[in-house]
Structures are given as structure tokens and as C-alpha cells.
Amino acid sequence: MGRLLAIDYGRKRCGLAATDAQRIVATGLPTVATARLIDFVKDYTAREQVDAIIVGLPRDMSGNESESMRYIRPGIGRLQKELPDMEIIFWDERFTSVIAHRSMIDSGMKRMQRREKGVADEMAAVIILNSYLESRNYNSK
Fold first, then answer.
1. What global pTM score does this model have?
2. Which residues on adjacent β-strands are paired with residue 6?
3. Which of 27, 69, 129, 136 could anchor a disulfide with 65, C-beta 3.0 to 4.6 Å?
């Protein structure tokens, strides 16, 4: 069984997270510039066995895809062309940014730390991946 990799895709940078090999826990990975995402993912999948990539799917309150999908789809399409055998799964990411910011506050993170670029993106990727894992675990019982 291989790892799962999650991407919180943004215009400037992408938050990343991956599971352990047993898919028990999700851990944040370094945030990367969106322009370097494909190189990072290709390098990571060359070093680690990854079975699927989970990509945050932004939706509005009505459940429709948000406007940001117009730049996410082409970016993930390029990733799919580079890794044609990799399964890519879009996963609802509603409220992940809000949850990430709330988690940072609840954990006692100082305001300046919360403003660091990429911290919320990384946490959002972890939340996306945990949500996906919880869904799979719930459905398998």
C-alpha cells in the first residue's frame, strides 16, 4: 500500500500533505510555489510510493465548483499529463482554510507565525487529506 498525497492548490503556492505508508496519519510537507508543483510531485513520487493524489476541490455554499477551478483544472491537467498513471481525486475542501486558521489560533500560534506564507496552505492540505481518510475509513466499516 502506498501513500496518499494531498494538494491545496493555489495561484501562488500549494500546500501539501502526505500519509504514512499505512495511511494512518497525514503530515504536512513543505509548501511549494505553484510553478514548481509538478517538479516537486514528480520528485516525491520517484522517492515514495504514492497510490493517489487528492486535490482540494473548492465549492461554494451551494455545492457548485468555485471560480478558482478555472486555474486549478489546467494546473492539475498538466500534472496528470506528467504522471499519466497516477490516480487524481478531487475532494471537497469547503471550510478547510477557515478550519486551518482556527486550528492555528487554538494551538496558540502567534499572529506573526499565522501570517507566514504557506502555513495555512500546509494545514489546509492536511485537513483535506484527513477528511478523505476519514471518509474512506467510515465507508469501509
1. 0.84
2. 17, 54
3. 69
